[in-house]
Write a sequence for this structure.
């Protein structure tokens, strides 16, 4: 043990800042794997003279695209945008490496806290600055949860949980309760985190996949559906083939607004214009929801009569006997709410909340 503490274990006495510092990230001599690989790649590039080859390759690729007659103007624009994104990614990686003191960012192989368990990898958590920003966006600026989740690349359920926990934290601070800040900082320093950099103009770092579509039970069957070659078979048509009540994928995803953002991006709008348009749509959605709620309250005040009681208030509403339906169990029929049997005692019935409103 003492030999290990004096040898490779010396690197853990003063852990590397901004890194997870797992055992799998170091070799048996205490050297950081990714730093050694980076130095080797740099020496190889210098020996082979690859300093300016990347720019020359991009220029030659752009020249080949211009000479290729089979490509359209849209194809050339898409390829140029892909090269620009790759150039920005390399530039961002180099800048981040410089900020870390020449140490590159962790790789997937560096995320294994248990060297003997090669399958388990530590997942990143939200940084304290990102949590605070999520709370400000929802509670202070009163932005919609869906928009915040789409803007920061965080799942909507995680955003709701962060807002609730931050609200409790603010309440405890007002009450003068002591918070375990040192413990929280120590844990966050040992885990990979998703940062929040408000001063940079680069795109945000997404935390997790936020628009994954769960497999619907109706789509698990294999169907051979004949369609004409001249017909444009869309997602709506495919959904109707599986089930008449099944919505298409564009409407079943958690964040349909991401489809609009991608369309605006392909339409040539920059990031500021896309954000402004999304804020406008959020404002219109809030106004529509407020108008719908006001209409509902006005309808209840017009159609319902409230009789004050000693312990409870009784509400009466005029009901038409003609709305019972063919089987007598219409949705607006009398006794539908109180006359139908409950299914609470049946097996397999979920009785706990399964979503965040």
């Amino acid at each position: 043990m003492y030999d290990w503490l004096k040898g490779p274990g010396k690197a853990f006495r003063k852990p590397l800042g901004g890194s997870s510092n797992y055992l799998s990230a170091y070799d048996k001599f205490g050297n950081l794997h990714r730093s050694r690989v980076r130095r080797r790649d740099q020496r190889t590039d210098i020996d082979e003279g690859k300093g300016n080859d990347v720019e020359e390759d991009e220029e030659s690729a752009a020249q080949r695209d211009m000479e290729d007659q089979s490509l359209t103007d849209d194809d050339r624009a898409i390829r140029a945008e892909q090269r620009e994104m790759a150039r920005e990614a390399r530039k961002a990686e180099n800048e981040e490496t410089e900020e870390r003191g020449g140490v590159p960012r962790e790789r997937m192989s560096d995320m294994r806290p248990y060297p003997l368990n090669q399958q388990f990898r530590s997942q990143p958590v939200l940084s304290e600055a990102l949590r605070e920003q999520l709370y400000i966006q929802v509670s202070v600026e009163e932005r919609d949860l869906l928009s915040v989740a789409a803007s920061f690349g965080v799942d909507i359920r995680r955003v709701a949980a962060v807002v609730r926990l931050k609200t409790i934290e603010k309440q405890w601070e007002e009450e003068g309760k002591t918070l375990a800040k040192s413990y929280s900082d120590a844990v966050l320093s040992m885990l990979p985190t998703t940062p929040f950099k408000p001063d940079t103009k680069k795109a945000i770092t997404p935390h997790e996949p936020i628009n994954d579509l769960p497999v619907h039970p109706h789509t698990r069957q294999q169907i051979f559906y004949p369609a004409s070659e001249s017909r444009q078979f869309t997602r709506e048509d495919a959904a109707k083939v599986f089930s008449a009540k099944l919505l298409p994928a564009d409407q079943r995803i958690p964040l349909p607004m991401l489809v609009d953002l991608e369309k605006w991006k392909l339409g040539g709008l920059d990031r500021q214009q896309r954000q402004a348009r999304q804020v406008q749509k959020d404002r219109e959605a809030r106004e529509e929801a407020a108008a719908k709620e006001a209409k509902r309250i006005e309808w209840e005040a017009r159609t319902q009569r409230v009789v004050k009681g000693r312990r409870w208030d009784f509400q009466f509403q005029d009901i038409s006997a003609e709305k019972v339906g063919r089987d007598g169990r219409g949705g607006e029929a009398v006794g539908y709410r109180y006359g139908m049997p409950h299914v609470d005692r049946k097996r397999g019935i979920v009785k706990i909340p399964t979503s965040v409103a």
User: Anything to note?
Assistant: Residues 2-111 form one domain. The first helix runs from residue 2 to 6. The chain has a mean pLDDT of 80.
